[in-house]
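#random but structural
TW: two for the price of one
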Amino acid sequence: MSLRPITLRSRVALAAAAAILLAVVVLGGALLALIAGQLRGSLDDTLVARAGEVARLSASTPALLSAPDALEGRLGGQQLLVQVVDARGRIVARSIALGGRVLPQGPAARSAVERGEQQFLDARLGAEPLRIFVAPLSLVGGGEARGGAVIIAASTAEVESTLAVVRRLVLLSLLGASLLAAALAVALVRRALRPLSGLSSAAREIASTGDASQRLPASHSPDEVGELGETLNAMLTSLERAREAERRFVDDASHELRTPLTALRGNAAYVARHGADPEALADLERDAARLARLLESLLALAREDAADTPGEELRLDELVGEVAAQDPGVTLGEAAALVVRGDAVALQRALENLIENAHRHGPEGGTVEVSVERHGSGARLSVVDEGDGPPPEVVERAFTRFWRAPGARGEGSGLGLAIVRATAERHGGRVSVEGSRFTVDLPLLRDLSGERPKLHSEAANKGQS
């Protein structure tokens, strides 16, 4: 049988009660120690003062020690108990309040007589607790107590009674404060969590319907709950945009896939009815290649969306040189030895897409130049053709998925530039267009240009030939 989890409200209430409980315990303990110290200190001062009076009486008029009421003294509502002993420890005088009782002497009296030491001790006289002070008597005077000791005692029952009352008061205060703190904490937490309950209910409703266009109720309070509501609404907005983009992507992909599949099925049906001929086989091969390119682009874009931040170090000049060497229509401009952290396969594919885009939209038979240069604190990869470039009003649309510019030569998927943007953003960079120049800016890791001669376009072209 599983136990129900403790709610946040209960945990906060318990924490508040525990904190108040600890505070009252510490405060109560300190208060008890202070009161006990004050009471016992006052009692000790009274015992010392009374012992001094008896010592002066023994030194000045020793005959009065045995006089009635000479040793009597009071502390509040109780009598002080006085006992005087000589140098041999024999009792020579005692207060009437002692009656037939005798105060305990023991080692304290011997220490006072033999070494002149004063000492406090706690003892019991029957069932009564006592606080005792033992002090030596001087050798001045001629009485029997000369060189002996005086023992002053007082009952601590009143002190203990007062401390017991204080303990009960502290205990009651502890319980009352804890209960009050728990009640106040529950009330405050309930009020504080009320907006959270509203957010939870609204979020539960959104989760049950799956409608990301709904929003959580706005909280106008400038606190953590209001910030949480704004954050969750921002998350829902992002989720709605992602779902909308996914829906458009699926619709566009379905439409784009339908065209080559329809042509492929039509040509296959023609071959099935009329037999294979070179033209029909060429159409089948062309449709299959177009479908394969489209699927490859879709997979590349999906991988860019799901891939982690790259961690491999690579030289951009070497990568550009390899790609340029494979295409006779490409010339290599400045190739600075710049090291970036990136995915070589993804960056090569992005560069090839930019080169293909330049061939498709530039003048037929024109050349395409690629270059690598340092731009500020970053690395810039550029591809430029001899055309005018896209009109400014379509620059942003050029990087959307499945968008193809009118008048482009050949059959494209409309995903090439979208893959370039996704690759640049995954590498912590960005892609931009200025005229016919497409640039990819990436974070620079190291610049090795000063360690080797630059690779100029004349040398690169000579190497290609």
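TW: number two ↓
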Amino acid sequence: MREQWGSKFGFVMAAAGSAVGLGNIWKFPYLTGSKGGAAFVVVYLLAVFILGLPLMIAELVIGRHTEKDPVGAFKTMVGGTPWVLVGYLGVLSGFLILSYYSVVGGWTIGYIVKGVTGALSNLSTPDAAAREFREFTVNPVLSVLFHLLFMAACMYIVIGGVRGGIEKWNKVLMPLLFVILLVLIVRGFLAGGGEKGLTFYLTPDFSKITGETIMAALGQAFFSLSLGMGAMITYGSYLSPRERILSAAFWIVFLDTAVALLAGFAIFPSVFAMELSPAEGPGLVFHVIPAVFARMPAGQIFAVLFFILLFLAAVTSGVSLLEVVCAYLIDERGWSRRRAVLIMGSSIALLGIPSALSFGCLSHISILGGTFFDFIDKLTSNYMLPIGGFFIAICLGWKYGLEKTIHELDPDTPFLSVKELWAFTIKFISPFVLLLVFVALVREDVVALFKRLFT
């Protein structure tokens, strides 16, 4: 008998844990800081509900309707056709993403250790914090060690199964994540001097919205919710018929968005109070935040809490990525869960080693103008996920047919227009927006490639 979630709360915590990741606490704040502040936040929120929520519902519908992993789901719906490749693309995406995601997850473990040992206490400037980060990431032993520790944590949770592992741990880790976020927010407000940060974060200047801002917001909304890789199809396949998909999807999207917004409240008041730049870009968390805590009373404690927060966000997403890969082997190949987790987890860990070394001894190796880490990141984020999301929407809306699956949506809901709106969005809006995102990302890469070749 196929495993199922033990409760709606457990499912929502697990699915929210999949969606809540480093993208919420690392990527969202630095995009907000560098793409227009509150104006970016407004565009992001619109993108979440126009693009993210309908696709979230679609993946959950496919998962529960078929009760299969991504490959099995497409075999059930459109078996014997090339559409099954969409399922394989999702499994491969999860495999590749986790191989480099676990490297960043390993950094969070390393910084927890640094915080506990006091190594972050003297990093009072972004330059000092940046030097510390570079020294850490170029160290091959530490980079690989912490990457492997992160993978071991993901494997330990997934090997326990749906109820005894994923659900059990997410019911603890997700509430803990919110508690730490709230502690950091309160600490930031009590410190004072963060009014400029709140103004930057809450008062939109719509003149700062550009095409780049819109595309960044659309991409962040899509990637933040773990869409396009089959994670929500897999989690939806463990959902019992009695659970309501619409309300569950709303809760998942709400919690994911809440974590991103709360991360901004935790970061921007303190950054502005310390007169540091919010436009640091990807280095905001590792270059600026340690400098913020180093200048605070009891900053070492809050630095440890912050990086524990990052680790929790990373591991809950890492678990879902590993589950996508393992569910395929369990469902389609008949492997035991233990065998699937040990073999695929170890394989992902091995593939991640070149990414872990990309900032040190392998930094000189260039693949299309970037390191191995950059290549895997761009391949999955800019190509595989948008393509996966696009074909999921097209398959459900046009090939398989919504009339065969729409009954999965809360049959007793009084809001019939919600179903109709979702069906219209999946058929017409989501594919168009995803195609737009994909074309824009490809164009950006092609322009960058030509510049490298001809300048």
